[in-house]
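User: Please predict the structure of the protein below. I'd like the answer in C-alpha cell form so I can feed it into my own downstream comparison script.

Assistant: Understood. Taking the following sequence of 600 residues as input:
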Amino acid sequence: MSFLFDREPGPKEQLDAIFRRLEEDVLTFVKEQLQRLHRLLASDYPECSESEEEESREVLNITLDFLKRMDQEHLAQHLLNRSKVGFRDKLKCDLQQRFSRVFEGVAKAGDSAPLTQIYTELYITEGGASEVNQEHEVRHVETVSRRPAAPETITCEELFKPRPHSPQPIRLVLTKGVAGVGKTVLTQKFGLDWAEGRAHQDLQLLFPFTFRDLNVLRDTQFSLVELLHHFFSPSKDLCSFQQLQVLFIFDGLDECRLPLDFGRTRVLSDPTESASVHVLLVNLIRGSLLPSALLWITTRPAAANQIPAECVSMVTEVRGFTDPQKEQYFRKRFIDQATVVISHIKSVRSLHIMSHIPIFLLDPLQGSTEASGTNRTRAAPDSHTDTFYSSGENLLETPHSSESPDPEAFYRSAVDQALQSPNGHLDLFLRFLLGLSLSTNQRLLQGLLTHTGSDPTNQETVKFIKQKLDEEGLSAERSLNLFHCLNELNDGSLVQEIQKNMRRYLSDRTLSRAQWSALSFVLLSSDSDLEEFDLRKYQGSENALLGLLPVVRVSTKALLSGCLVSERGGAALASALSSAPSHLRELDLSYNHPGPSAES
C-alpha cells in the first residue's frame, strides 16, 4: 500500500508558475492595448486618459517598431499622429492663451489687445546675407524707406516651403529686422495661427522660445525633453517626438547671453541626455540634435553672424510696413482719425520714414495731432529708447555740468557729439532732441526734460548748425542730417533759398558746401523718382558729385560721364558706396580723368 503526500513546489516549479502567470497577464495587457490602438486608427476610440496614456506608451513604441518591420511605414506614422492628438490639443490650447492678446508698446496692466484684431501683414523679403551689419539701424530704416517694393517678398506660409530657385528642403530660417519692426509679434501670430488651426497645419508640434527666457537657465542642466517639460507643461505627456514634424522658434538672438560656440561645443544627438542649455541650442542649430526639426530664429541685424552661414537655409528680413500696409494699420487703430493721422505722417519726412516701424506707430502717435500746428517729434521719445540705449553714450551730458546748465551750450554739445559719431548712430536722436526743444512739444511733455529750449536758444542753435554746414571735412551724410535738424527746428531758410535760386546757382557754379547739402536734402525729401540720377542735369563737376553723394547712393543708376571726376572724387564715391548698403547697380564714369583734381 502506497501513500501520496503533497509536497511544496521547488524553486524551478515556482519560477515556471510565475512566468506562466506573467505570460498570461502580459498577453492580456498587450492584446487590450493593441485593441485600443486598432480602435484609435479606426477613429472611433475616445481620447485616452492620462493613466491609460502612461500604460500604453511602451506598447505604442513596440507596435510602431513592428509595423515598420512589416513595411507599414504609412500606417505607423498615422498611428503616431493619432496617438498625439490629445497632447497636441493641450499644447495648442496653451499657445492660444499665451498669444491671443498682446501688449502694444510698453506693457501696462489691462492694456492688451486681441492679436488678430490689431495685426497687419508685414513686408518680409527673402534673401540677404547673415553676416554682421555695421550700419546703424536708424540709417538702415531710412535706406529701406526709399527702397522700391522688392519682387522677392515672402509670406509666413512660405517660410519653410522649398523655393523655386533652390529646391533643397529649408530647415533653418534666420529672420532679421531692426528693433521694433515686428519680429516678435510675427512669431506670435505664426504660433496663434497654428494653435487655432488657421495655418501651418503640416506642423505637428510647435515650441516657441525667447532667448531672454533661455538666458535665465544659463547655469542649469537639461535634456531637450526636460527643457520642453520646463517651458511647456503639456509636453509632460509626450513620450517621443523624434518622428514628428516639429518647429522650434527662438526669438531675439540679439538678446542671447549664452555662449554659442559652434567650434568647441561637443556634439550631442540624444534628446534625453542632459547638458547646458547652450549645448542643446548649438546642437539643434547644427542639426546634430533632432535633424528633422525645423528652426526659426529672429534677430536684429548686428547679431545675425552668431549663426554660421552653413547652418542657415534661408535669410529673410522684416522691413515693417509698406505705405499701403501702414495705412491699413492706421485705419484699424485710429478708426475715426485715420485720415488726419495719415496726412500728418506724410507731411513730415522724419515721421514718414520711421512710421515704417510698427512700434513707432503705437502709443505716442495717439497724441500726434493734439498740439496746435505741426508736431514733428511726438512719436519719437519712448519708442526709440532701445534703439539708442546701446550706443553707450550720454548725449544729454554737457561738457561742463553745473546746477544751471547753459541751454545753448547743451545743444551745441549735442550737435558736436552727433557729428563725431563714426556711423551716424546719434543722428536721429539729435533730430528728435532738437525737435523736443520747440514750445509745442515742451507743452506736451509738461516739463519732463531737464534741459529745455526757448526761441532765442533755438535761433542760436540754428546759427550754430549753419556754421557747421560750411566747415571743411564735414561728410555729405552728416550735412544731410543737419538739414533734418534745421527742419525739426522749423528753419527752412537754406532749403527755400536753394529752391528759389537753384538754376542761377548751378549755372554760375557758385554753390557753397551748405547749398550742395541743401540740394541733396531737397532731392531726397521729394517724391521724385531716383531710379536714374544724371549729375549733368545739375552740374557736371566733381564738387557737384561730392555734394550730392547721398543722392547717388540711393539711386539705382548713376550717370557721371564727363563730369571731371578725379582721383579725389573717385575715392569719395568708393567710400560712400562701401560704408553702407547702396542701391546703386549701374555706374557710368566714362570720359573722366582719375588723376589730380581738375577743379580748384
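That's the full C-alpha cell string. The longest strand covers residues 205-210.
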